Amino acid sequence: MGRPGPNASPTLEQVARAAGVSRATASRAINGLPYVSEKAREQVAHAVEVLGYRANQVARSLATRRTGSIALVMSEPGNFVLSDPFFARVLRGIYSGLSGSQLQLVLLMTNEQDEDGFARYLCGGHVDGALVVSLHGEDPLPSLLVEAGLPVVLGGRPLVRVDAPYVDVDNFNGACLAARHLIDTGRTRVATIAGPADMAVGMDRLSGWRRGMAGTGFPTDAVAHGDFTVEGGAAAMRRLLESHPDLDAVFAASDLMAVGALQTLQAAGRRIPEDVAVVGFDNLDIAATASPPLTTVRQPIEEFGRTMTWRLLAQLSGEAGLPPSILLQTELVRRESA
What we know:
Blueprint: H1 12-19, H2 23-30, H3 38-51, H4 57-64, E1 69-77, H5 78-83, H6 85-98, E2 104-110, H7 115-123, E3 129-133, H8 141-147, E4 152-155, E5 166-169, H9 171-184, E6 190-194, H10 200-213, E7 223-225, H11 230-243, E8 249-252, H12 255-267, E9 277-282, H13 285-289, E10 295-298, H14 301-316, E11 325-328, E12 331-333
Parallel strand pairs: 1-2, 1-3, 3-4, 4-5, 5-11, 6-7, 6-8, 8-9, 9-10
Antiparallel strand pairs: 10-12
Pfam family, one: LacI
GO molecular function, one term: transcription cis-regulatory region binding
Organism: Streptomyces xinghaiensis
């Protein structure tokens, strides 16, 4: 690490490169802003001293001003997000939570061709904070954002350890309620269409279903995974009928997958609920209009969006004593399918 030439003033980018941090983190450290680790502050201070960097007052003023925008990051392809009613209701809740804040919302959806550019944009000082929804597997994005000093709130429990708050719904106990309801109605061969195995929501609802079945003495081997779409639910239901033709009930981990299951069951000549009872999860509008109307587990989707937004805005305003995680309750909504 050395000083620039005699006629060159060191830039913020050079300081960031020398310190091994992002430009946004270097800017926050130099201007005494929060959300910078002690290690990063020390690295930036050392780089400033060695390079002889001097931030001018105009640059300092610009660095301490906020952008007036936050990002909503949907870790799904755009065509999936725009066709899924769950995300529409999350977005409605977020807009409600932003009411009166004068903040603009930037919507970002996964682009597999430029994932690095996706992270660079968020870490480049374009937004004041981010809401990140629908994480899969060991997605490094939350850790990258935290390391860059960007305030972040996650929608859903992350599968990997990350120093960021999250808001979730009680997927485990909601699925447990669904399983026990099916048992209470006299069903003995209960299957489940679980969500993706690389998402906490899929794992938690599957674990909850197993907990609800525990102690009944009934088998729990009738499991198929879907992708939270109608088509995915229909395909999973076909696999379950082939491998477990004696099933008399199914818990689908989303309403869209439950509707797909209804279609497959009806095409196979199974009466609902006489032959097979069906329970979904979400309580989307489609649940009440399904044929027959769908018994489901209600999750407060718009409240989920509002709560994420409140948590991020509270963090941005410097409130103390904020909870590291928030869990919203679920409840069973009984209709004719079970």
